[in-house]
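The record is passed on directly below:
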Amino acid sequence: MTEAILLVGGKGTRLRPLTVHTPKPMVPAAGVPFLAHQLARARAAGVDHVVMATSYLAEVFEPYFGDGSELGLHLEYVTEKEPLGTGGAIRNVASRLHSGPADPVLIFNGDILTGLDIAALVDTHTRTGADVSLHLTRVSDPRAYGLVPTDGSGRVTAFLEKPQTPEEIVTDQINAGAYVFNRSVIDTIPTGRPVSVERETFPGLLSDGAHLQGMVDSTYWLDLGTPEAFVRGSADLVLGRAPSPAVPGRCGDQLVMATAQVAPDAKLTGGTVVGAGATVGAGARVDGSTVLDDAVIAPGAEVRDSLIGAGARIGEGSLLDGAVVGDGAVVGEHNELRGGIRVWCDARIPAGAVRFSSDQ
């Protein structure tokens, strides 16, 4: 395996306000853009050429990663002029691939944190002679996902919409968002229009008699599509629950980036990240949270399971639990923000103005 396509064009609407100024794959997780973890794991699995399918805020990626040489990779970037969906994005970058028709190409989404054994997926694809192979994972409650049943040999037998009744839950296996395609299959995807691999390409291939192979790998897997999941994923990277060679430090309760300032009596726990140039004041408590670059947590503030945007400020004595604060926002002193509350970029909340939870 030498080539991969990374789908990084989504707008990250569910992650706003984190994605107002930053595309979702570039939001920092465990101290570096989430995309850095995916690239590092791909490189460790033997990938050396990655084509990024970009769209939203496409101009952000190349200035950060360049040609990929510092990562031991050759990176290329292709920008969609109009949204093309997952299948359309794959087809749109095909001209940049070097693989022959029968060669395998790894494809993965830019918002999935996983411990997938990439080499094992490629080996499964090659060993079974599949046209496309899918990483499948098992979930305890599959009602929010499309189901992917397989036969005794692992061959995919159907793609089922989200089940509406208990009788429709015929498997706990779901599409986990990483694939291996034969290059020849990529070339059959229609050009110039939106195409969904989940709703069009995969069912179409199956009905045409193609061999679609599923590999169940139930190691760590998390869709980082919501702020709550993103915060949890970052903490799990710091704690070592999710594997990544890109974490810039040793795993543990906290990750404090260079130039950050943390008061001696401040307490950081639960996989908390404090970004470069950020400040955590005296007596502050930060648990399971991400504090991005240049943010300020004032003395005596308490922040739990929250994400504090770049340059934001949390006032003295404020309590945040499950909150998201956008870049440059200011939460004044002695506020209480709970239950998924989101504070937009550059917003200003006066001292003592908020004392409620969004679920009350």
User: Anything to note?
Assistant: The radius of gyration is 21 Å. The first strand starts at residue 3 and ends at 7.
